[in-house]
Amino acid sequence: MAYLNGLVGHNGGYGCRLYCPIKGRHKHGQPYYYPAFLIPDNYTVPGCDHPDYDAAHIPVATQGVNDYATNLQYVLDSTGETNYKRRRLATGISKPSIFSGLPRTLGVPGCFPADLMHLVSLNLTDLFLGLWRGTIDCDATDNRNDWDFAVLRNADTWKQHGAVIANALPYLPTSFDRPPRNPAEKISSGYKAWEFLTYIFGLAPATLYGILPDQYWVNFCRLVGAVRLLHQRSITRDEILRSHARVVQFIKDIHALIHMAFETIRLGPLCYFTQWTLERTIGNLVEELKQHSRPYANLSQRYLRRGEVNALKAMVPELDPDGISLPPGAQSFEDGYVFLPARDKSPRLMGPLESQALWRYLGLERGDNARVARWSRLRLPNGQIARAAWKEKAKSLNKVRMCRNVKLHLNNRTEFAEVQFYFSVIVNSVEHPLALVSLFSPPDPNMLEKSLGAVWSCRYQGAAGLRVVPIKCITSVVAVVPFPLGAHTQVRAIAERPHFIVEKMGLDVAYMGGHEEIEAIADEVE
After folding, report:
1. pLDDT tens figures, 389-431
2. Which structural domain range is residue 53 located in?
3. What is the rounded CA–CA span in Å between residue 437 and residue 357?
4. pTM (2 d.p.)
5. Looking at the structure, do residues 364 and 407 belong to the same domain, yes or no?
6. Residues 159, 308: one domain?
7. Is 451 helix (H, G, I), strand (E, B) or coil?
8. Structural domains in the chain (count)
9. What is the 3-state secondary structure (H, E, C) of 269-308?
């Protein structure tokens, strides 16, 4: 980014990529600046011994942007190398941005917004693992043995934690993309940004409970709640303020996080313009390279061919039809819900408790067993495919990525449930698509409060939680993962353990970008 925006980079005196007026500090005799809000004890480095910054009242980044043009000219007017270095240090600007040469832009450096992908998925995760594993750099005068937060420093503990993360694989739906591998084995083997995101902000809050000391765990959960809010496609003012308040409480010296809420107000939800799109484009273009001896000339031809194809699609839209065609046997309903095979060839008897759930939903008092034709899958409007226990439980745990657990908006409340199967009934000549689900228990209030909402801990209720709900109550597919064995759970049977919920971050934005879950029809119609 420093090559594009012309700023000094994050190790400079004014290292914020959003060009805010916060100045960093450096250690005695060291050239690198750090965005430390608080002045260290017994610290007398000239030019860096300014008073503490208040994280709750940090200047908005755009305040510095207003001075950018003046400061840039100040740097350009430098009279020599020494004068230039002095002015570069005083302004945080090393050169004009290449974008300054464009006739129309959103303004430099304001056109370079914060990037959720690198900040959250890579930089923060690297910091956390460096702290928890005790591998982060420190001065020779420091003693890692005193780090009570380095709970994964012990090799056996790190190995056990890695196994817990790897064992979550069967419970992560296929729509969660690349699941996190065992970090104890694969953290240095091309661990992907999406793996880090799911691992740290999805699984870690629950899997580190009882391991990370409470004061650090609660503070980590505070950040998790803020990050999850900022990954939403739409966000309310109250959610922005709540996210900012959590970040301020969490952080004192991780500078860039402070700007996230204000950037959301300035530009809209941050998940719209992260680096995910560009990184994917880079990956696609590299895959297309056919002449590695002249890569840039080759890429130019690929660009040209893409432009020609896009022009043809614009002139003849029929060349690029919208949507995905439905497979044979599928049945679509309003608002983008689609039943997908497998399906019973003929109606079958429901069990007594299942029938009671249906009669209760229809407001009928009957004692006989109902007959319905079951469906095994449901495509949701967000592109996810929800499956059902009817088919999924027939597979062994090591051969499944569970897609039968869903989030419901039911009676103005958020609920989570395991889908047993889908079906439809006709009432007054109108077909009603429904799902038989088993609701999970309400969240443990103590865990919910202690984690500031980051860990939704519930229990599977089986037959006791059977309900019939309209399919339109189903909003997404989620992961429901058993808590690992530890001091907080002594129940060894997986079905009896408390479970925690993991939702896919940025799901609605991924769907906007054209990502839909596509899978072959493996189930035969019965």
Report:
1. 999 999 999 899 999 999 999 998 999 999 999 999 999 999 9
2. 2-101
3. 10
4. 0.84
5. yes
6. no
7. coil
8. 4
9. CHHHHCCHHHHHHHHHHHHHCCCCCCHHHHHHHHHHHHHH
